[in-house]
């Protein structure tokens, strides 16, 4: 559709199972990305969204014969829309045991802006 | 996939992505036992691999019975106010029937990037052997 490059077509696109939750300090996002190494993970912070992608490959010896295959290689892709409540500068990402943890802190204080109208 | 959990924004390419999403085959929507397993072998070993992201070795219990391998564990849910919950949580268990006998004392398990690999060395008597046949 918009950015389908030929080399990306070889890998099936997987959508990581995602949890989004709120705690007092901000929003926490967890994505299951088993098999993705830290160097294969790409985080792309755009204006209003955070795009995550990571490739996973099958680890196997040369002589291995597969009798049963229930998961395989692919590219995980997910995009999260960021609200104005998120402090973009403070976003933290951690990849541990195949789970990507994103911490999206809330901005210090959301001040409603009042527009003063001066009548003349 | 675009996840919203707050303010509405207009994205120029969002509709495109929505269509792309819709046309995509539901690869991740497989209804099968959890966790997904790959089972393979070579001349030396049997390999059982499982996708269990977020699970530590301590949360896993791997038992080798006579001819079955049992993988048990638990995925603990995160605490907080959920906007979206897709990741499976709770106890899981899978049983793998082994087709050959293995050397029980040399079975090893490792965990890397959320993928568990159990390596089961085949017993000497089940390894393929080359038998030379004299042709007379």
Major sheet description of chain A? 4 strands, mixed
Stretches of chain A where pLDDT is under 50 for at least 5 consecutive residues are 1-8
Helix content of chain B: under 10%
Distance between the termini of chain A: 55 Å
Question: Key terms for this structure?
Answer:
heterodimer; A: 120 residues; mainly beta; four-stranded mixed sheet; four-stranded antiparallel sheet; 9 strands; elongated; disordered N terminus; B: 136 residues; three-stranded antiparallel sheet; 38% strand
Describe the structure.
The complex is a heterodimer of chains A (120) and B (136). Chain A is mostly beta strands. Chain A contains no helices and nine strands. Chain A has strands spanning 13-14, 18-23, 26-32, 36-45, 49-56, 65-69, 74-81, 92-96, 99-105. A four-stranded mixed beta sheet of chain A has the order 1-7-5-4, with no helix packed on it. In chain A, strand 8 (92-96) and strand 9 form a beta hairpin. Chain A is elongated. Mean pLDDT of chain A is 85; it is low at 1-8. With 136 residues, chain B is mainly beta. Helices cover 7% and strands 38% of the residues of chain B. In chain B, the strands form two sheets. Chain B has a four-stranded antiparallel beta sheet, with no helix packed on it. The longest helix of chain B is centred in the first third of the chain and has 10 residues, at 14-23. Chain B starts with a strand and ends in a 15-residue tail after the last strand. The chains are: A mainly beta (120), B mainly beta (136). Chains A and B meet through strand 1, strand 2, strand 3, strand 6 and strand 7 of A and strand 1, helix 1, strand 2, strand 3 and strand 6 of B. Strand 6 (65-69) of chain A pairs antiparallel with strand 2 (37-41) of chain B.
């Amino acid at each position: 559709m918009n950015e389908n490059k030929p080399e990306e077509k070889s890998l099936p696109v997987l959508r990581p199972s995602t949890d989004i939750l709120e705690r007092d300090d901000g929003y926490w996002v967890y994505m299951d990305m088993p098999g993705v190494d830290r160097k294969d993970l790409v985080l792309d912070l755009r204006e209003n969204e955070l795009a995550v992608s990571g490739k996973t490959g099958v680890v196997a010896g040369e002589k291995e014969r597969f009798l049963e295959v229930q998961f395989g290689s692919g590219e995980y892709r997910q995009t999260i829309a960021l609200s104005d409540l998120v402090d973009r500068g403070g976003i933290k990402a951690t990849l541990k045991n195949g789970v990507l943890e994103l911490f999206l802190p809330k901005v210090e204080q959301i001040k409603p802006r009042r527009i003063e109208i001066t009548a003349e | 996939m675009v996840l919203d959990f707050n303010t509405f924004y207009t994205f120029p390419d969002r509709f495109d992505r929505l269509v792309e999403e819709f046309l995509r085959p539901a690869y991740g929507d497989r209804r099968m036992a959890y966790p997904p397993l790959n089972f393979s072998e070579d001349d030396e070993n049997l390999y059982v691999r499982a996708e269990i992201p977020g699970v530590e070795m301590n949360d896993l219990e791997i038992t080798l019975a006579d001819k079955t391998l049992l993988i048990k564990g638990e995925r603990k849910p995160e605490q907080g106010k959920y906007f979206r919950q897709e990741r499976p949580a709770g106890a899981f268990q899978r049983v793998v029937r082994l087709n050959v006998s293995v050397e029980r004392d040399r079975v090893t398990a490792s965990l890397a990037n959320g993928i568990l690999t159990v390596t089961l060395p085949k017993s000497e008597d089940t390894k393929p052997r080359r038998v030379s046949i004299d042709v007379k």
